Amino acid sequence: MSRFAPISPRETKIVKPDLSSYKFGFHTSTDKYAFKSGKGLSTKVVEDISSRKNEPEWMRKQRLEGHRIFKDKKMPEWGADLSSIHFDDIYYYLKPTNKEGKNWEDVPLEIKNTFDKLGIPEAEQKTLSGVKAQFDSEIIYGSIKKMLSDKGVVFLGMDEGLKKYSDLVREYFGSLIPTGDNKFAALNTAVWSGGSFVYVPKNVDVGLPLQAYFRINSPNAGQFERTLIIADEGSKVHYVEGCTAPAFTDGSLHSAVVEIFVKKGATVQYTTVQNWYKNVYNLVTKRARVEEEGRMVWTDFNMGSKVTMKYPGFILAGKGAVGETLSMAMAGVGQQLDTGSKAIHLAPYTSSTIISKSISKGGGRTSYRGMVSIGPKAHHSKSKVICDALILDPQSRSDTYPTNKIFNSDVTLEHEASVSRIGEEQLFYLMSRGISENEAGKMIVQGFADPLIKKLPMEYAVEMNRLIDMEMAGSVG
Amino acid sequence: MIKFINKPGNYSFTLDKKGQELEIVGRFHLTGNQVGRWDVEIIHSAPNTTSKTTIKGVVDGSARAFVDGIIRVFPAAVGTEAFLEERILLVSENAKAEATPNLEIETDEVHCSHAATVGKIDEEEIFYLQSRGIKLKQAKEMITAGFLL
Lengths: 477, 149
Hints:
The complex is a heterodimer of chains A (477) and B (149).
Chain A: E1 35-36, H1 43-52, H2 57-72, E2 94-95, H3 109-118, H4 120-127, E3 130-135, E4 138-144, H5 146-150, E5 154-157, H6 158-164, H7 166-172, H8 183-191, E6 196-200, E7 210-215, E8 222-223, E9 226-231, E10 236-244, E11 252-254, E12 257-262, E13 267-274, E14 280-290, E15 295-302, E16 307-310, E17 313-316, E18 322-331, E19 336-339, E20 342-345, E21 351-360, E22 365-374, E23 381-391, E24 397-406, E25 411-420, H9 424-432, H10 437-453, H11 458-472
Parallel strand pairs in A: 3-7, 6-9, 7-10, 8-11, 9-12, 10-13, 11-14, 12-14, 13-15, 14-16, 14-17, 15-18, 16-19, 17-20, 18-21, 19-22, 20-22, 21-23, 22-24, 23-25
Antiparallel strand pairs in A: 1-2, 3-4, 5-6
Chain B: E1 2-4, E2 9-15, E3 21-30, E4 35-44, E5 50-59, E6 64-73, E7 80-90, E8 96-105, E9 110-119, H1 123-131, H2 136-147
Parallel strand pairs in B: 1-3, 2-4, 3-5, 4-6, 5-7, 6-8, 7-9
C-alpha cells in the first residue's frame, strides 16, 4: 500500500511468509548418508559421535561435560522466544559422506550438484585462497592454494585439525568460550562437528579471503560447527562464511561456536553472510581475543533465519588493540533478528567501534543488544556505538538495548541510536525527479545499508545488494 | 510540562493523551561512597506525543551511578517523537558508571533517538582555564558546574 493512499484503519493481520523467492530452497535425499544419528540427544549420542571421530580422551570428556552443562542450564529468558525448539526432534549428527574431498571430482554427485547450484566451485577459482564446504555435520570438500600451504597457512576442517594439530587445538579449544559460557555453547561443545581450523603463521598475509560454506540439507537437522582461528603475530587473514538451507517446514537448529585469537599486531576480519531459510534457529556464540596492537573486524550480515541471536564480541586484552563490528540485520515476515556486539576493554589505549544497522518490515522484528565494558585498567580507551534502525511498516518493531559499563574515568564513550521510517522528504525529493515510489524506497534502503556493504569484498557486496533488492521487491510503502 | 528526576529512584511516565508533550530533566552530583540508581521508563501510548529526557550527572570520589532509561513506543502511538540523553562525567579515578539507554519501538511512524556518553573532563578545557590564571581546582569546579547546567 502506498503511504500516500488515504489512511485506513491499521491492518494488524500477520502475513504468512512468501518463500517462493528463496532460491536455495532445494534439497537432496539423505538416504545415501554414511551415518545418521537417531533423533534426540543423550550421553550415548555424544559418546557415539566422539568414538566415530576417533577423538582423544580429553575431547570425549569435554563433550560429556558440555552435555551435562547443557542439560543443567536453563533456556535464556531474554531475547527471542525459543520455546518452539524441540531438542528431542533434532538429528544431532548427520554424516553425508565418509571422507573430505580434496578435488571437486571426489565429492559425491548429489552434494556436488547442491554446491554447484550455489556457485561455489567457480567462486573458488576466481576469488578465494581456500574453501571449505560443510554439508550437515561434516566438511565434505576442502582446498587451499598451494602457495599458502607452502608458507605454513593451515586451513583444515576442525576434525582434521584436531587430529593433525592436537596440541594446538587442546591449548586453545574452549579457552575463550568455555563450555559453560551459555546453554548453546555447551550444546555445541557436546555435539560439535565440522567447522574450520585456521592457523596463520607469523607475518604471513593471506591475500584473498578463506571461505567456508555451511549448508543444512536435512529436515530437523542440527548443525554445530566449531571454528578456531589463530592469527600469529603480524599476520593478516580474512575469513568469510556463507550459510544457506533448504525449504522445509520443520525447523532446523544452527548453533556454532567461533573462537578467534588475534596475536600481537595481527589483523583478522571475519565476515558472515547469513541467508538461512526462514525456519532456522540461528544461535551462535562468537568471540575474539585481541592482543597488543592487534585488530579484529566482524562484518556480520543477517538476512535469513527465523530467529537469530548472535553477539560477536571482542576482548581487547593488549595495549592498543582495536575491535570493530559492522553489523546489518534485515527482518521480514515472521523473523526476529536479535543481534549486536560486545566490546570488553581490558587494556589501555584500546578502541572499539560498533556500527549496527537494521531494517524491519512485514511484521519483522530487529533488536540491537550490545555491551561495552571498559575495565579499571583500560585508561585512554575509546568506544563508539552507533545503531540505526529503519522501520518500513506499522506492524514491524525495532528495539535497542545497549549496556555501557565504565570502571575508569579516563575514557571516551559515545553511544547513539536512532529509529525512523523512510523520510517523507527524501521520498518526495526522489519522486519529484520522476522515480517511482517503490524504486525510491529501494534506493533509500540501499543507501542506508551502503556504508556497511562497502566494507565487503566486491563479489559479496554485489551479492548483498542483490539480496536486499530481492527482499525489498514490492515491500516499500 | 517539565518533570524533575534529580533524586535516584524508579520513575515511570506515560504519555497517553493525544498530542501530549513532556520534558524530563535529571541532574545529579554523586560524591564519596554514594551509589545512585535511576530507572526511568517513558511510555508513549497515544498518537503525536513528544518526550525529551536529559539526564546529566557528575560522579566523584568512589561513587557509582547507574542510569537505566527506556523509551517504549506502543503500536497506537504513531507520530511519536522521543529523545533520551544520558551524559555522565567521571571526575575521579575510582568513579564508576553504567548508562543504558534502551528503545522499544512497535510502530513505524516515529522519530526516536538516544545518546549516551561517559567521559572525563577535557584536558584542553582545563588548559584553557589555567592559561587564564584559574587554579586547577577551581577550573574543575567551573567545568563541572557548566556540565550540569
